[in-house]
Specification:
mainly beta
Length: about 160
């Protein structure tokens, strides 16, 4: 049985199969928009990966890769990527990166100083300390991020 539903303007198609077959969720990527290449100066002790890259798509999907993480999620901008200061709210899809659950991140970017601050919360840790660092913004030229892994990025 196939059911479709919309969440945050994204169309999801859920295919429900027999109990012994896996359940799938199909999500299509929008058009690539921007990337953020993050360098953390203050990191979360459970995720001590100094570098990470976020790939954004115009339908609110993102992919993040780092030396120790790789997952997908949805985001919404508070402002635009061209503003002097803006923030982005992220909700990861359940992944092994977060013990099979979701995580919420709020990042605030300052384009004049090319710095960011990050506040995160996960089911496994609701008291993640503030993180921060520097970033570079670029054009996302990756229409299909599925094959992207840390160390094999096209940029």
């Amino acid at each position: 049985m196939r059911r479709s539903f919309s969440l945050l303007g994204l169309l999801f198609s859920l295919e429900i199969a027999a109990a012994e077959a896996p359940t799938t969720l199909q999500v299509n990527f929008g058009k690539p928009t921007f990337t953020h290449h993050l360098t953390y100066k203050k990191m979360y002790s459970e995720k001590p990966f100094e570098k990470a890259t976020l790939y954004y798509y115009d339908n609110g999907l993102y992919k993040i890769i780092s030396p120790g993480e790789e997952h997908y999620g949805v985001y919404i901008n508070h402002g635009t990527f061209d503003d002097a200061s803006y923030s982005v709210s992220y909700l990861s899809l359940p992944s092994v990166d977060w013990q099979g659950n979701v995580a919420k991140h709020e990042l605030t970017f300052n384009s004049k100083t090319t710095t960011f601050q990050q506040q995160a919360m996960a089911e496994s840790d609701k008291s993640i300390p503030l993180q921060f660092g520097t970033y570079q913004q670029a054009t996302n030229r990756v229409s299909n991020p599925l094959p992207l892994h840390w160390g094999s990025t096209p940029e």
